[in-house]
Design goal:
The complex is a heterodimer.
Chain A (H helix, E strand, L loop, with lengths): L1 H16 L7 E2 L3 E8 L13 E3 L4 E10 L6 E2 L8 E7 L2 E2 L5 E5 L4 E4 L16 E2 L3 E11 L8 E9 L5 E2 L4 E2 L2 E2 L1 E9 L4 H17 L3 H14 L7 H10 L3 H11 L10 H11 L3 H12 L4 H21 L1
Parallel strand pairs in A: 1-14, 2-15, 3-16
Antiparallel strand pairs in A: 2-4, 4-11, 5-10, 5-13, 6-7, 6-12, 8-11, 9-11, 12-16
Helix pairs in contact in A: 2-3, 3-4, 4-5, 4-6, 5-6, 6-7, 6-8
Chain B lengths: L6 H5 L2 E2 L2 E2 L1 H9 L14 E4 L9 E4 L20 E5 H5 L1 H5 L3 H19 L43 H6 L7
Parallel strand pairs in B: 3-5
Antiparallel strand pairs in B: 1-2, 4-5
The chains are: A alpha+beta, B alpha+beta.
């Protein structure tokens, strides 16, 4: 009897180990896919999720793919963006995928996010291999095929890879955990002064990203007119002038905004310090860094700013 | 390897829409990188753009009326939302020469920093903003420093220290 039980147990274990589902598949790895709507903000007092305002004929998203763990390399196909499935719902109703046009941009960045890896430890030009601790970043644009704007409402976007398109280095299919990502957001009509404020902030950022700083300046001027008593808004002007490398104008705007940022953990004092260094006023840069952050790291910050400025100037010379 | 902060992990942070301390700390221990997630998450939002220029993160309680804590410690059990802003972090590459690794480190630092405010911990080493309740914040860097250092998790500037821990206040439920 004992032998029979042992035999059945052995048979059972053999069956488990040779289960057809475990052949050609592994499940010990987490593939993270993260997505976020570009040109949106969570600053709305009405909603917790990111919002964007006004009519949009196209929606731009950032997409990140990361291999979070596991002992083996994951391979994405060379044309991996072709294998990406994108689903969009509006107010819980699925929008037919055939009505959507998806344009994935070329790969933008490969990066390390594991502190144990240094930036030099991987080949930044090889986008097919996804090592643990390495991420890929790209972007895509969604449009409606009929050319109409996306209606106002609550949206949910989900993206994942087609089955079998991601493989381990031994050729087996990835069937691990994760592998789905997405974003929720709202497209809102501009109805209140708070909405108008959000609209200007988002629009200005969009213009800056598209390298249209003059249009960003116009929008931020309107923001200042909308809230003349809110001096913190001058920081947007400062950021735009900085983008244009008009450092003296940026200093005037940042100095005006600075009192509104006392006690906050912001980048404004760094940006003002950057402008001071750019116009050879290093002592003023030290002063503002000391006032906001204390004695630590001042010289390291100045050194880094100089490094960035040298790079910028080097690029201009090449042009 | 540490796993990222995900919706399931954040579940334990919620208690009647308020942030609860013990769970947050447990989450931080397993925290690697937090980003936008599909599920609606009332506690932690990763937002593409800051509502005020240059802001890295924000801790909200009902008394601040949609404004940040401005370096103040959060009222125990009153925190309703924490936000981390991506655009401000990404800009560190062009203003301070940060590598993508340092930017990722800083995103983690911001998240931990804001969670710290949520647990009633003050900024440190900001001479112009003493802690409103008179708490001693020490003089060495911690994750609560306002400074942006880009240091990895094993650096003291990316960690809580004893002066931070002593400031933690979590109100008991009535």
């Amino acid at each position: 009897m004992k032998n029979l039980i042992m035999l059945m147990l052995l048979l059972f274990l053999t069956m488990i180990s040779s289960h057809p589902g475990s052949e050609g598949q592994r499940s010990d790895s987490y593939l993270g896919i993260y997505c976020s709507l570009m040109h949106s903000t969570t600053g709305s007092p009405r909603y917790d999720e990111p919002v964007t305002y006004g009519e949009h004929n196209e929606l731009a998203f950032k997409l990140s793919v990361v291999h979070e763990e596991g002992g083996m390399l994951l391979f994405l196909p060379e044309d991996f963006t072709e294998h990406l499935v994108i689903e969009l719902t509006k107010d819980e109703e699925r929008l037919p995928v055939e009505n959507l046009d998806v344009q994935v941009s070329t790969m933008e960045t490969k990066y390390a996010y594991d502190p144990r890896l240094s930036e030099q430890d991987y080949d930044p030009d090889n986008f097919q291999v996804l090592e643990p601790g390495i991420g890929l970043r790209t972007s895509f644009i969604l449009k409606r095929r009929d050319g109409t704007p996306f209606p106002y409402g609550f949206y949910k976007l989900i993206c994942y890879f087609k089955r079998g398109s991601v493989k381990f280095e031994d050729g087996t299919d990835w069937q691990g955990r994760g592998g789905r990502g997405g974003a929720i957001f709202r497209i809102l009509r501009v109805e209140s002064p708070e909405d108008q404020r959000g609209y200007y902030i988002i629009k200005g950022g969009e213009y800056l990203q598209k390298n249209q700083p003059e249009r960003a300046l116009e929008v931020y001027q309107k923001l200042i007119e909308l809230e003349p008593e809110n001096i913190s808004n001058y920081a947007w002007l400062g950021a735009t002038y900085m983008h244009m490398e008009k450092y003296r104008e940026a200093i005037v705007a940042y100095e005006k905004a600075l009192p509104a940022y006392i006690g906050e953990r912001t980048s404004i004092p760094y940006e003002l310090a950057f402008c001071y260094v750019a116009v050879n006023r290093e002592e003023k840069a030290r002063e503002v860094l000391k006032k906001f952050f204390g004695e630590l790291h001042i010289e390291e910050t100045i050194r880094r700013i100089k490094m960035v400025l040298e790079k910028k100037r080097g690029r201009h010379k090449k042009k | 390897m540490l796993t990222p902060l995900r919706a399931t992990r954040m579940g334990c942070v919620m208690m009647g829409n308020k942030l609860t301390g013990v769970c947050v700390i447990l989450d931080l221990l397993s925290f690697d990188f937090a980003r936008q997630i599909v599920q609606k998450n009332l506690v932690l939002n990763i937002s593409p753009m800051a509502p005020r220029s240059g802001l890295f993160g924000c801790t909200f309680d009902p008394t601040t009326n949609s404004l940040c804590q401005f370096g103040r410690p959060g009222t125990p059990n009153w925190i309703v939302k924490i936000e981390v802003y991506m655009d401000t972090h990404q800009k560190l590459a062009t203003t301070r020469g940060f590598t993508s690794q340092q930017i990722e480190n800083e995103i983690k630092r911001t998240t931990g920093h804001e969670v710290g405010h949520g647990l009633h911990i003050c900024h440190r080493t900001v001479p112009s903003t003493p802690c409103p309740d008179g708490a001693s914040v020490g003089t060495v860097d911690s994750i609560m420093s306002s400074n942006i250092t880009g240091t990895p998790q094993n650096d003291p500037a990316s960690q809580y220290n004893s002066a931070d821990a002593q400031q933690i206040r979590i109100a008991r439920n009535p």
